[in-house]
Design brief:
Rossmann fold, 6-stranded mixed sheet, 4-stranded antiparallel sheet
Amino acid sequence: MSETLPASPANEVLRLEQVRKAFNIGTPLETEVLHGIDLRLNRGELAALIGPSGSGKSTLLNLIGLLDTPSSGELYVLGQATRDSDDEARTHLRNQAIGFVFQFHHLISAFSVLENVLMPLMIRHGKPSHADIDLARGLLDEVGLAQFADKKPTQISGGQQQRVAIARALVTRPPLLLADEPTGNLDTRTAQSVFELFHRINAQFGCAILVVTHDPRLAADCGRTIQLVDGHIVSDAANSPSR
């Protein structure tokens, strides 16, 4: 695993300062879900976010992914404040800086594995270039699926489909990769192989990776574990090296 870089503005990918999130504001049903979250993530870090159901993990991940905005506090991505950004600016920053891997891979069955990996680039600028295709094929090779480039997602296993989703998330070379329960539908052995892939990606590309997981064994395999309980970060500590 790559060594975590020391904290500095140049290395910092993500910073949250006293971030709060409430819903139904100004009504009798107003509920605050996140209560003053402070968090930093640097390039080269592989961190796990854990916590019981209802602790606010999904809400926090939506904020970090710029899919929602804090009620108060500030969230910085690559040093850029985001809370008051308009939708266009947030979309642009999200597309440039953040890759997403979900529990359900959301591959498009009508397209080949290679075309699915290329999809973010096709959305960004239309027909892929030769360089785009070479990049996508290289990523498929990195995740061990080069030989399946022309297959449809329905022709490969669930674990292989998740690896395609990881390659797709990396095709834009994002500084931050967010993975939401990426092994939730996988058996233990396949889940471990996906985490091994995260380690390899982390070491090779130096991107920051934040993984939401319910599995404490997988969390312990990350360099750092952040525990969220009832909308508060109750612990944030480095894990003992296991590799």
